[in-house]
Amino acid sequence: MAKQSFDLPLLAKPADDDRREVAVVLKAVMPGDPSLHLGGVDPVAEITALADTAGVRVAGVVKQKRNRPHPGTYVGKGKLEELCELATQLEAQLIIVDDPISPGQGRNIEESTELRVVDRAELIMDIFARNARSHQAILQVELAQLQYSQSRLTRMWTHLSRMEGGAVGTRGPGETQLETDRRIVSRKISILKKRLANIEKQAQTQHKLREGSFRIALVGYTNAGKSTMLKRLTGADVLIEDRLFSTLDTSTRNWDLDVPFDVLLSDTVGFIRKLPHGLVASFHATLMEAREADLLIHMVDASSPTIEFDMESVERTLTRIGCDEHPRLVVFNKLDRVREDQRIDLQHLLAEQEDSFVVSATEGTGIDLVVERVLEITHERQESGSYKVPHSRSDLAAKLHSMAAVDQEEFLDDGIHISARFDPGQKARWESMLKKAGLFPAATD
Ligand SMILES: Nc1nc2c(ncn2[C@@H]2O[C@H](COP(=O)(O)OP(=O)(O)OP(=O)(O)O)[C@@H](O)[C@H]2O)c(=O)[nH]1
Ligand SMILES: [Mg+2]
Questions:
Q1: Cα distance between residue 51 and residue 235, in whole Å
Q2: Which of 57, 55, 61, 54 is nearest to 8 (CA)?
Q3: CA of 369 to the centre of ligand 2 (A)
Q4: From the CA of 237, how far away is ligand 2's center (Å)?
Q5: CATH ID of 382-436, from 3.30.1150, 2.60.40, 1.10.760, 3.30.70
Q6: Top-tier CATH class for 21-130
Q7: What is the predicted pLDDT for the residue at 1?
Q8: What residues contact residue 409 under an 8 Å CB cut-off, 6+ apart?
Q9: Predicted pLDDT at 3
Q10: Residue 79, SS3?
Q11: What are the residue ranges spanned by the domains of the chain?
């Protein structure tokens, strides 16, 4: 029997009727991996959860500590042999690599194991494809998948020509077919891009309608509790699941706060370490909700053993999508699940992070303070102004009541003197209405 250095950590025994595809995870544990910095962190916990979400059962793990991936085979030769033995022993149908890999690396692992190889990027895209509900999300995932596979068509073709018995050389008809395929894929990509551009145009009209409202976006690592928070704050009936990437569409709800303008709260797609670039690019429009927000609420799962790594990876993704300068609150969630030994670290994080809060979105603990702070911020953002409106234009005065918080209103001989607080967009709108009526600039202040 071959040497048994395989890791089979904490993998639950399958039920007898478990018909899911069986996979072995291959992982190069490299600098920066949370498990190297934190004791007790399982380096394959996340990829196992991703596999599980994609409907695959992880039956075994082969890992190797490395400084960088092997350029040809991702891990070393010996490890690859170990992988083959374990995969055979477990009757695996699939190898999952916990990193994005090059087409060459994929091909080499496939040839050694004679099994299908899926890398982390493909797995995440597969989950997105399963969870996509809206037309836009479906097209966005399809685009990301096509773009990813575009670079990999060669790999598929060398594979096929080998299956045909080797008679077809890599430069034979396969090459022509490959070119045809490339053209088909390119055409599909441009069709998808056009369709998405149309959807985006419609969305922009929607966005225009929301100008003048205060917009808040919930962002964070996948499964941190963003949708639960949206539900807690607005009562929205949104999908909440203990799974990764449940939310792929932005849903925006009116948040009924006591301010004289609309406050909109949006749920957004979650982030994860090594989120494929293609997905971020194709979800550009969905992520616009975060980019255009006046305030971000960064939801953090405070019970996560890799909390700081999660937060850092969210910050990096926010920078990638152009949100690094947005004002934000950091909300540490799932307080009810935080263990005693995690509390001190949480205290430190709270002290370090400006504008941070601890809540349990499911139980409602700590939510009041978040609401209070949001109210303060919305007030800070208000601008005030004083105006004089002739008595003959009391319709304008009434309009102002519907647009702003009127602090003072006096009916004097020379007209109605009004002072009001606006959110920034509204003030400009109101003043241009006055201008049209020939009453501005002629403010009493
Ligand atoms: N114990 C506990 N569980 C929570 C809390 N908040 C959310 N959860 C659970 O965490 C899981 C994920 O919650 P979601 O609200 O779906 O998380 P999300 O951030 O929207 O996740 P994705 O959309 O998948 O990225 C669900 O099972 C929730 O019930 C909390 O305060 N305490
Ligand atoms: Mg969600």
A1: 32
A2: 61
A3: 22
A4: 11
A5: 3.30.70
A6: alpha beta
A7: 37
A8: 397, 416, 417, 418, 419
A9: 36
A10: helix
A11: 21-130, 135-205, 210-379, 382-436
* Inter-helix orientation angle 120-131/45-53, to 10°: 40
Atom 25 of ligand 1: nearest residue by CA position: 222
What is the per-residue pLDDT for 386? 92
| DSSP structural state of residue 197 | H
Query: Does the Cβ of 263 fall within 6 Å of ligand 1?
Result: no
C-beta 222 within 6 A of ligand 1: yes
Residues 6 or more apart in contact with residue 368 via CB below 8 angstroms:
none
Expressed in angstroms and rounded, the spacing between residue 248 Cα and the centre of ligand 2 is 8
According to CATH, the topology of domain 210-379 is: Rossmann fold (3.40.50)
**Mean pLDDT of residues grouped by 10 in the chain (445 residues)?**
40 66 95 86 92 94 96 95 96 95 93 94 90 87 88 54 40 59 86 89 73 87 95 90 84 85 89 87 82 94 94 93 92 95 92 94 96 90 88 94 91 94 80 90 56
User: What single letter denotes the amino acid at residue 319?
Assistant: T
| Beta carbon of 361 within 6 Å of any ligand 1 atom | yes
Q: Is 241's C-beta closer than 6 angstroms to any atom of ligand 1?
A: yes
- What letter represents residue 43's amino acid? P
Ligand 1 contact via 246 beta carbon (within 6 Å) = yes
Tens of pLDDT along 158-178? 444 444 443 333 444 455 667
Cα-to-centroid distance, 127 and ligand 1 (Å) = 17
Q: Side chain identity at 310, as an amino acid letter?
A: D
| pLDDT given for residue 381 in this prediction | 75
Query: Can you tell me the distance from the alpha carbon of 270 to that of 268, in angstroms, rounded to the nearest whole number?
Result: 6
Run of H or E including 94: strand 94-97
Secondary structure (DSSP) of 121-182: HHHHHHHHHHH--SHHHHHHHHHHHHHHHHTTHHHHHHHHHHHTTS-S-TTSHHHHHHHHHH
Pocket lining: 131 vs ligand 1, CB cutoff 6 Å: no
| Tens-place pLDDT, residues 396-431 | 999 999 988 899 999 999 999 999 988 767 888 899
Residue at token pair 């303070």: 369
Whether 382-436 and 210-379 are alike in CATH topology: the answer is no
Pocket lining: 336 vs ligand 1, CB cutoff 6 Å? yes
Instruction: Name the token pair of 231.
Output: 């539900």
pTM of the model: 0.80
The ligand 1 atom nearest the CA atom of 248:
23
Omega within 30 of 0 (cis) for the link into 441: yes
Beta partners for 295? 216
